[in-house]
């Protein structure tokens, strides 16, 4: 691939040139940067920070669930008064832990950490743009996220504790500090933080959409976009349409909490006092929340699926099976995701007829999801598969997506959901299909694009060790929870000792906790690998995975503006792997058909005639 | 001292791991691994994937078919529970089949089509027939699930049969209050502003139907008779959940909800079925409601219908037990309230009244 070689030479010349004229200060380059690549890395680093916090919180409450008799006195230096005199975790703080774990993981890690990182990093590189449509808005997007993070982080250290009403913050619990301490200042900070977070998402989303629509390079039609970009694009649309609804819901909650309105409050008697609020509806909040909340789970999983599509195709050395069907299913999922929200509310007392409608719509969404899974499997069929760590994580993602997706058929069925609602079955379901799958997408993406991000390779062996510990660990943590859920164990329970019906499974709960601790510990292998490789890793070749997409035509260290010379034009779709007749098993997108007469299909041969490009360089086949 | 030793041990282990990592990296460089496009352990990874598949499936079937110490299904004790459990197991059969087959294909293909020197992948970008087939099959299977689910759901959530026992369940932090309609089988009105320390559910005594309402300390349910739970909450959202009855409905402040069902096994029958002489039906709160959420329990006793009727008739009206609340009854209904609640209107009343008041 001599084209890449030529580009490197150009880059070197340009680079020297660039350094003479516009040296950026440290602050411009690394802190208030407008470069999409650096912003992407900022999102990644902050996402990793939150993943450690969010994961750490889950370990604390897993200790409580797995070993209810254990003395947690040794946590007193960190948790202080939240450890009771008996050396136990405070039961109200337990709820705060669960709440913050959910909030952090869903919003800060899997939304900001995943979309923020890869949409920012990959959209301009893969569509052939110099940067995002608005670098300034992009910078604001990160710093709003940073502000939201700072506020949420501070709330962890409040004397009354962070928000504790569950990550779904259903009022009245979240509206009344009398009901739970966390609904005091903790909840206020939660709401303020989320307002900034939503602003960040909207600024980012508008940018992603605008960039994909307007800044594609010559020849990059929508039908030649890599599936990653399709996924990021649709995800941004989902976010743009649904996050404002969460904003509205949060705003009304703020009014109820602080200004005496009654949007969600009615006929409440608490702490010996009858509140004046009448006429509000707690169910209204749930409708508004889940109108965001359900698209949100697709905001989390679609980018991961996009990343997986790219990685599985590249490493199977095969075109993704059913490219158009994959786009179609992304669109179908995105559309349906807006009209299934009330399946979270089958037993809230809403009209049962509404329940029937939402059951119908919910189960329909399984069809495009199934199509995606089948297409991934067929992409592997008759491939020539290279198991890079990224590939393993992608296969793991597909496995989780199937395992967790199937249990959705139980929960989406309103009659079956009567028993399973709010039990550990739900916990198992969404941790597999949304949590772990999206997390694996994030990790796969990091392993795959690390060479492009930092110009160095991550260590493969550590990657394998990390994968196997995590993959097996995740299954050992979440699979047993199905059994516990079928037995009816409610989620968000501090302990099961009060109920005779839930006296079983103490061994299994201990087992799950041990598995969780091991899985969490294994992530430090990744962290070591990540930071070590950033500085000491082997220098990356220009196209280490022999991939077709445009980002691999950039220099090893991608400079400002991404391509030193002209932006390459695009002549073909991104999945020309193992094309019959081609010299190599991949033909990057920027190679014109007229340079590859040996492998062109008949309609492509026609296209080749219309291409107005210079003939292939003489050293094309060296 | 012990902590110091632990910290030192951790540091030592980490140092050893990092040293091992350095050595293997250097050995790899010497062997020339680092420049290779295909990882040197590609075959190992492929084999591990298949091993994982086999171990996973064996574990899955072993534990699902009785390998666990604890039974993971709760015995069913309601009529509709049989239907929802049927649906559950039909869904389970379908999903297990799909689960096993797709995972076998996923890991199997990964193993079978692992990289081999000189091999080339097949350029196979789409196949419309195949895609139509695997869009249509899930659609048909789902249609079956939707229709059966919808019928069951409509039956369960439809109006309760005529003559169902109406019982009020009110959730509050952190317990439940149960109210029966009394002799007239009519629950009186309530008003949240009437709630106080004694009148926990806020009975409104301006309604005639409330005079004979009674509040027991256990939820009694007749076997084989439809029961309609009228559910509400007075502070935050709770959820009435009973795993054996396969029953769940949120209790929402300001928005009454309901759920009707028919219990099929008495507590005594469940005791013999489960072999647990201490078995009790428990009412569980299943919506996060605060500090004591995990202990928000109430006992349920299912008895034969005739036994239930006897128990029902023997209950004293709440107003009789708390006769100082007679003052809340409008003047013109006082007489009626005394009779309906069983406080007889005679001279002995005064002494009874005082006794009750002093108890409070």
Can you characterise this structure?
The complex is a heterodimer of chains A (622) and B (360). With 622 residues, chain A is an all-alpha fold. Helix content of chain A is 62%, strand content 1%. Chain A has one domain: Up-down Bundle (Cytochrome C Oxidase, Chain A). Chain A has helices at 2-21, 26-31, 36-66, 76-79, 91-127, 135-155, 185-214, 227-258, 282-316, 323-337, 352-364, 366-380, 389-411, 414-420, 424-454, 460-486, 506-536, 602-610, and strands spanning 269-270, 273-274. Chain A has a two-stranded antiparallel ribbon with strand order 1-2. In chain A, α3 packs parallel to α6, α3 packs antiparallel against α17 (506-536) and α5 packs antiparallel against α8. Chain B has a domain at 165-345: Immunoglobulin-like. In chain B, α2 (42-67) runs antiparallel to α3 (79-112) and α3 runs antiparallel to α4 (128-157). The longest helix of chain B is centred in the first third of the chain and has 34 residues, at 79-112. The chains are: A mainly alpha (622), B alpha+beta (360).
Elements of chain A, N to C (H/E): HHHHHHHHEEHHHHHHHHHH
* Overall pLDDT confidence of chain B: 89
Do you know the CATH topology of the domain at 165-345 in chain B?
Immunoglobulin-like
Residue runs with pLDDT of under 50 for 5 or more positions of chain A: 1-20
Q: What is the number of strand segments of chain A?
A: 2
The CATH topology label of chain A is Cytochrome C Oxidase, Chain A
- What is the first-to-last residue Cα distance of chain B? 58 Å
CATH class of chain A: Mainly Alpha
Output the radius of gyration of chain B. 32 Å
Question: Descriptors for this entry?
Answer:
heterodimer; A: 622 residues; mainly alpha; Cytochrome C Oxidase, Chain A; two-stranded antiparallel ribbon; 18 helices; 2 strands; globular; disordered N terminus; B: 360 residues; alpha+beta; Immunoglobulin-like; 5-stranded mixed β-sheet; 4-stranded mixed β-sheet; 9 strands; disordered C terminus
